[in-house]
# Entry
Amino acid sequence: MTTSLGIVSSGRGENLRYILQEEQSGRLPAQVKIVLTDQPDAGALKIAKEFCVPGHFIDPSNLRREEYDEKLIAHLEAAGVELVILTGYMRILSPLFVRHYKGRILNIHPALLPSFRGMDAFSQALAYGVKWTGTTIHIVDEDVDHGPIVYQRPVPVLENDTHDSLKARIQRAEYKAYPKAIKMFIEGKPKVLGRKLVWQREEK
# Structure
């Protein structure tokens, strides 16, 4: 059995490429059914086309947040999506959307949460002088960059790092971390207990 994924993105979509590569290799027990973006020129749409996955730009103009999210839900439900994956999605999801897919939305953030939530986590890490940062995959709840953590991959901060060099190193970590986290989530069937996940792995 494979899990049906729906990708929601705003930008380059490179994490989507690595998710699709793991799917095609058979290492990820999932299938990307649909890719949705809020930007007409989002890279995720180009990658979806490259991999022959249905992709759609949904125009947010003149729509309230819940109205837009209702459109997202309609497309995701029509595609039979079981698990929603956010890849560089820049809009804040409405409580309506989060409740509809409660416990079934994953997001990736370029820091070791709960550190450096919000925008430009790379500059935050450099300004704070930390020696390690990284990437976090977490379940989405109604707060920003806040839900229970599924998986983290640390990345060292080097003495000569710039914003761009640190960003590039974290992005390379993301490409490995996101498919791994999705696989862990699908196979482990975790339940949320407070701020933590309790993993209920199936016996093999």
